[in-house]
Design a protein that fits this description.
Strand content of chain B: under 5%
Radius of gyration of chain B: 24 Å
Helix content of chain B: 55-70%
Shape of chain B: extended
Strand order of the largest sheet of chain A: 6-7-8-3-9-10
Mean pLDDT of chain B: 84
Largest sheet of chain B: 2 strands, antiparallel
Number of helices of chain B: 8
Largest sheet of chain A: 6 strands, mixed
Distance between the termini of chain A: 31 Å
Number of strands of chain B: 2
CATH topology of chain A: Rossmann fold
Oligomer: heterodimer
Number of helices of chain A: 8
Distance between the termini of chain B: 19 Å
Order of helices and strands of chain B: HHHEEHHHHH
Radius of gyration of chain A: 18 Å
Number of strands of chain A: 10
Structural class of chain A: alpha/beta
Mean pLDDT of chain A: 89
CATH class of chain A: Alpha Beta
Strand order of the largest sheet of chain B: 1-2
Chain lengths: 241, 212
């Protein structure tokens, strides 16, 4: 068994103290392996977003551990944590969050340049990943000249540029029509098939259906999980399809 | 699904023998509704009795009996294409019946019933989505034939169905949470006189759809 890219061990996140304490997560454990896309579902307030924020190092656990590859987030100082986020974690949001004054290629190469890479190398890396997600022709275009689906593909490219192998997606298709949303999920799925690890928060069953596993949260606790998927070929044993 | 009309529709294209009808039906619907060959022959016998199909005068080279449509059978298929499928007849859905009974039976852990079903349905939805990706890839690669298109449409119908079931389960969960926060009204006592009892039973049947 390969080492997981993301590992949460008995993670608790409590906001506030005493009688007014809010228990957002109450002992969640979860592994996401390379090549795996895991969906998280649950009603509003179940802890989905808290889980995603903890997984991406945007928040810290009250207790328990969050590992991204070989680094335990709780043991890192603020600077090291910011560097870890830049180098290893990519975020995809519902509203794309591209910087409007930068072209697609500039948006994608920004995290690399912030991390000290030369502009030239950064742009080259950006073009490579834009090509992978099928929007290389948009490299010099600004976000307001792109459709929602195109912007989200650029956002996925930005999430995966460099050596980052963990993509955290929060309702990434929420602002898109169903056909375009499906295209975006397909890109995310393909990137995971190519070795990335993905954590997808969604409330739509048909989006969660693109994942290998679905984890259900309620009141900060994992209440159920679907177990891993089998290959499509094996679903049709005995059929000609 | 009416096997009878499915077979008639296939026979409108050309004469076929029983096993051929079965494999054609399954190929076009992706094997989603498997038929056994006995079922095909029983249906053919009934269709022949009713004058909708007839045997070809000669068997094929391998001695198999071919069936073709009669003019009445052709009319039947044409009418089928032109008529909407009857949706007034509510089919019995085991899940709906199960949940209707679960919420009215003391001691049943309804949220767990709902969650168990949701997990199973999403798992099914995931399998369907994988099959769909595969089928769409074939379409995109241009290696598909018209049966693949039929299969893709069947899959998408199943995906919509599974998705709608999950949405309904989410709704059930939200409704239960809402109900749980309200004081519960006791169930009305069953009426004593026979006429009122009959009315009560009819009402129960209509509102739960348990029995037609």
């Amino acid at each position: 068994m390969t080492a997981p890219i993301l590992r949460l061990t008995d993670v608790v996140r409590t906001h506030g103290e005493g009688d007014t304490a809010v228990h957002a997560l109450r002992g969640v454990s979860l592994d996401v392996q390379p090549g795996e896309l895991v969906a998280v579902m649950g009603p509003s307030g179940s802890g989905k977003s808290t889980l995603l924020n903890l997984a991406g190092g945007l928040d810290r656990a009250s207790s328990g551990q969050v590992w991204i590859e070989d680094a335990e987030i709780g043991s890192l100082g603020a600077g090291a944590l910011a560097a870890l986020r830049r180098r290893r974690v990519g975020f995809v949001f519902q509203d794309f969050n591209l910087i409007p004054s930068l072209t697609a290629a500039e948006n994608v190469s920004l995290p690399l340049e912030l991390d000290g890479m030369s502009v030239r190398d950064g742009r080259r890396a950006a073009r490579e990943v834009l090509e992978i997600v099928g929007v290389l022709e948009l490299a010099d275009r600004y976000p307001d000249k792109m459709s929602g689906g195109q912007q989200q593909r650029v956002a996925i490219a930005r999430a995966l540029v460099g050596n980052r192998r963990l993509v955290l997606a929060d309702e990434p298709t929420g602002a898109l029509d169903s056909q375009t949303g499906e295209g975006v999920l397909r890109v995310l799925r393909d990137r995971c098939n190519a070795g990335a690890a993905g954590l997808l928060v969604t409330h739509e069953a048909r989006h969660a259906a693109w994942a290998d596993r679905v984890v259900f949260l309620r009141d900060g606790v994992v209440v159920d999980t679907t177990g891993s998927a089998v290959a499509a070929e094996d679903l049709l044993v005995g059929s000609e399809h | 699904m009416s096997v009878k009309l499915g077979l008639l529709a296939l026979l409108a294209e050309s004469s076929m023998y029983g096993a051929q009808l079965r494999s054609e039906f399954e190929a076009r619907t992706g094997g989603t509704w498997p038929l056994n060959v006995g079922q095909v022959y029983t249906t053919l016998a009934r269709l022949e009795r009713d004058g909708l199909v007839a045997q070809d005068p000669q068997a094929d080279d391998e001695g198999r009996i071919l069936y073709h449509l009669t003019p009445v059978g052709f009319e039947e298929v044409t009418t089928w294409w032109r008529t909407p499928v009857d949706r007034d007849e509510t089919p019995r859905d085991e899940l709906v019946i199960k949940l209707a009974l679960a919420v009215t039976t003391p001691g049943v852990d309804v949220p767990t019933v709902v969650q168990t079903q949701r997990t199973a349905t999403i798992k099914h939805l995931r399998d369907l989505t994988r099959l769909k990706v595969q089928a769409t890839d074939r379409q995109a690669a241009d290696t598909a034939n018209s049966n693949d298109l039929a299969w893709l449409l069947v899959l998408e119908n199943l995906i919509f169905g599974a998705e709608s079931e999950v949405r309904w389960l989410d709704h059930v969960e939200a409704r239960l949470a809402q109900e749980a926060s309200r004081p519960r009204t006791p169930r009305p006592p069953r009426p004593a006189d026979p006429a009122a009892e009959a009315e009560h039973t009819a009402y129960t049947i209509v509102t739960t759809g348990v029995e037609k």
